[in-house]
């Protein structure tokens, strides 16, 4: 461990931080919702759905529609999402070299379900970099509640205040802040002002900046 860093561990969100799925899945939601009569702009999609759990997104979609989703919607979403990830999933640019340079214990904390996270990390060949994985099915409350990040710190054996969180969505940023952690916001495709309003301490747009920001390369 680099004695100059103020952190004892780093916890990464997955979608939009490790793998480039955030916009891909939002686009799928946008397409499928338009097929049943709900047309939303890209900005509305980011505002309503980005960073949230699948159950929360379904609740929001029902609220916006004003009636329940079709019975087949959730299964169709799962099938089409898996097909997209199997063919189009990519790592966030420079993420692997960044992970190799961060010589601290690392975990993943995500609003994804375990099966989905396992698929993404294996597909991207990133599993070897992490000592713990905390998903929505491991806790009572998803982000923006702090549960996922607090459990990740516990699994790593590190005090929350000594953890850095790497997030992109305002929902996730608020979760890290609520856990008492310092949040570094990846802003390559996100609004920095919204990230700062959510509580991010630092915003950056290139993953290669992160080890220097953490003082642990």
Largest sheet geometry: 6 strands, parallel
Structural class determined from secondary elements: alpha/beta
In angstroms, what is the radius of gyration?
Answer: 17 Å
The coarse silhouette is globular
Distance separating the two termini: 10 Å
- What is the averaged pLDDT score? 92
Helix content: 40-55%
| Percent range for β-strand residues | 5-15%
Q: Give start-end ranges of low-pLDDT stretches.
A: none
Strand segment count: 6
- The helix tally amounts to 10
Chain-wise SSE layout:
Layout lengths: L8 E4 L9 H14 L6 H8 L4 H12 L7 H16 L6 H7 L4 E4 L4 H11 L7 E3 L12 H10 L6 E5 L2 H9 L3 E5 L5 H7 L3 E3 L5 H5 L3
Parallel strand pairs: 1-2, 1-4, 2-3, 4-5, 5-6
Question: How would you describe this structure to a colleague?
Answer:
With 217 residues, the chain is α/β, with parallel strands linked by helices. Helix 6 (114-124) links the parallel strand 2 and strand 3. The radius of gyration is 17 Å and the shape is globular. Strands 3-2-1-4-5-6 form a six-stranded parallel β-sheet. The mean pLDDT is 92. It starts with 8 loop residues before the first strand and ends with a helix. It contains ten helices and six strands. The longest helix has 16 residues, at 73-88.
């Amino acid at each position: 461990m680099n004695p100059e860093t103020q952190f004892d561990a780093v916890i990464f969100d997955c979608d939009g931080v490790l793998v480039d799925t955030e916009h891909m899945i939002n686009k799928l939601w946008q397409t499928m919702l338009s097929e049943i009569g709900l047309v939303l702009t890209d900005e509305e999609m980011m505002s309503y759905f980005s960073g949230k759990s699948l159950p929360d997104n379904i609740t929001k979609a029902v609220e916006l529609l004003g009636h329940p989703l079709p019975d087949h919607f959730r299964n169709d979403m799962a099938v089409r999402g898996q097909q997209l990830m199997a063919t189009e999933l990519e790592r966030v640019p420079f993420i692997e070299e960044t992970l190799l340079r961060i010589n601290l214990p690392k975990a993943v904390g995500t609003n994804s379900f375990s099966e989905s996270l396992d698929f993404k990390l294996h597909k991207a060949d990133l599993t070897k970099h992490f000592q713990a994985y905390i998903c929505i099915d491991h806790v009572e409350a998803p982000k923006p509640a702090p549960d996922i990040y607090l459990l990740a710190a516990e699994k790593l054996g590190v005090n929350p205040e000594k953890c850095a969180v790497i997030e992109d969505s305002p929902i996730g940023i608020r979760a890290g802040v609520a856990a008492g952690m310092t949040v570094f916001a990846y802003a390559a495709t996100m609004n920095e002002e919204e990230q700062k309003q959510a509580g991010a301490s630092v915003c950056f747009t290139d993953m290669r900046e992160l080890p220097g920001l953490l003082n642990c390369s």
